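Re: [ENG-882] Designed sequences occasionally contain unexpected residues at chain ends

Forwarding the minimal case from QA. Structure tokens:
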């Protein structure tokens, strides 16, 4: 089925048909803690200088905030120009804004690809490590539940939520985040590392999804790197882009024989792999990456230049603000 309102995401590079794009409204970041150590030095200093208070971003960084909103709107417009249906989430209610504030202050709706995920016909509310982001499931639920109800083949599941913990500690989880999940047919690659998903989350996903014919492959990540998608993306069958030194055990088995466009640590940190494939021949990427775009062209993939440097200031990029609801297998 391909009509709007029917969910189904079957790959990372098949034709993209329907998405949710996040919003910047009310963005307020929590006091600095270990689980925010991926932030850049300017943002980290601003959080530390707030002396334990949450930081309203529109007040603290008005120009960057305005640029972020503009770039997010441009990303949505790019999708629409390519015939992709775009949804935007509603802002939080006042009660949602305060939810879980005893664990971690702050609220964000920038990155809907993390707190929920679509694998095939399965819509999954997952368990994000940073407590201030767990409330993101509620506006998404309002948007997507009518689609699920209209689709007799859709599955809707919510995984066990993480145990309460102090943000500066690791906590037991289970943690599972959309930025760590890559779909390659019936093989599901899941990153696990210091800042994102852990093995308790990976094991939960395997127990849930494998009876439906999928196979989950853990992919350990070295060091304080946020998400598997920050390290690697799948561009088409047999071709991926990655910073290989960040993979503790190398490429997982289903990807061992793939061609690799290798990127530098600096390109990884600037989110070169956090673009979005519109299909197996077109990849949305920030135009700053001249060398990477040349490599894409050399491998038969046309770059779609899409500025996202302001979005990236907060720790993500195009793929993070994008939740695919419908994508073909290839």
């Amino acid at each position: 089925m391909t009509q709007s309102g029917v969910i189904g995401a079957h790959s990372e590079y098949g034709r993209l048909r329907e998405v949710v794009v996040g919003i910047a409204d009310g963005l307020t970041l929590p006091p600095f803690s270990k689980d925010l150590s991926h932030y850049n030095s300017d943002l980290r200093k601003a959080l530390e200088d707030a002396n334990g208070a949450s930081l309203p971003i529109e007040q603290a960084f008005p120009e960057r905030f305005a640029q972020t909103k503009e770039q997010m709107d441009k990303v949505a417009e790019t999708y629409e120009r390519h015939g992709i249906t775009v949804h935007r989430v509603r802002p939080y209610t006042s009660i949602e804004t305060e939810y879980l504030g005893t664990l971690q202050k702050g609220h964000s709706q920038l990155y809907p690809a993390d707190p929920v995920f679509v694998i095939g016909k399965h819509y999954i509310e997952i368990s994000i490590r940073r407590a201030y982001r767990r409330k993101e499931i509620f506006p998404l639920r309002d948007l997507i539940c009518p689609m699920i109800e209209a689709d007799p083949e859709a599955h809707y599941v919510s995984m066990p939520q993480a145990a309460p913990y102090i943000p500066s500690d690791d906590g037991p989880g289970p943690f599972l985040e959309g930025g760590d999940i890559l779909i390659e047919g019936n093989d599901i690659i899941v990153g696990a590392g210091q800042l994102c998903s852990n093995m308790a989350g990976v094991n939960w996903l395997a127990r849930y999804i494998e009876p439906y014919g999928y196979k989950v492959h853990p992919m350990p990540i070295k060091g304080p790197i946020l998400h598997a998608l920050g390290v690697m993306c799948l561009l088409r069958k047999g071709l991926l882009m990655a910073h290989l030194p960040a993979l503790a055990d190398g490429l997982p088995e289903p990807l061992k024989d793939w061609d690799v466009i290798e990127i530098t640590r600096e390109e990884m940190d600037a989110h070169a792999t956090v673009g979005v494939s519109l299909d197996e021949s077109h990849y949305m990427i920030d135009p700053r990456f001249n060398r990477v775009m040349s490599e894409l062209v050399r491998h038969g993939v046309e770059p779609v230049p899409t500025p996202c440097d302001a979005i990236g200031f907060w720790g993500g990029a195009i793929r993070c603000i994008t939740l695919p609801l419908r994508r073909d297998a290839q």
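QA comment: On inspection the terminal residues look reasonable. The longest strand covers residues 16-21. Proposing we downgrade this to a documentation issue.
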